[in-house]
Design a protein that fits this description.
elongated, 2 strands, mainly alpha, 129 residues
Length: 129
């Protein structure tokens, strides 16, 4: 998905709306899910831009266009996370994780759960090599 252009905050919000609407949504339904929704025409312009970037496609359904994502929510999340890490942590996943752990209000139970997940991943890697 790295070949696709980066998304703005509003474009990510539109993509989230498309996924939340079962990956089949009209511009009106998408607009209804947006915070501080822009005008109908602005939403249509943003959808056209997302289509040009390769994130959505449309089908004609009578007088309306129905939009769907060209990728799965998991791939879209991964791409958004990579963009976030690049923007705020110079591409370093380690820096991001360190910041999350240091700045979060984690309970002992949360930290134990994180440690268990790290141990599980480390053990899995050793078994594969």
């Amino acid at each position: 998905m790295s070949h696709l252009a980066a998304l703005t905050r509003r474009e990510r919000e539109i993509m989230n709306a498309v996924f939340a609407l079962g990956n089949r949504a009209t511009a009106e339904a998408i607009r209804a899910r947006l915070t501080d929704p822009p005008s109908d025409s602005s939403v249509r312009v943003m959808l056209a831009r997302l289509e040009k970037k390769g994130y959505v496609r449309h089908q004609q359904d009578g007088p309306r266009y129905v939009y769907s994502a060209t990728t799965s929510p998991a791939v879209a999340k991964r791409s958004a996370l990579q963009q976030y890490i690049q923007t705020f942590f110079n591409g370093s996943l380690r820096q991001m994780m360190t910041a999350l752990v240091a700045e979060g209000s984690w309970s002992d139970e949360d930290l134990d759960s994180l440690r268990a997940e790290l141990d599980r991943v480390r053990k899995e890697r050793k078994q594969r090599s």
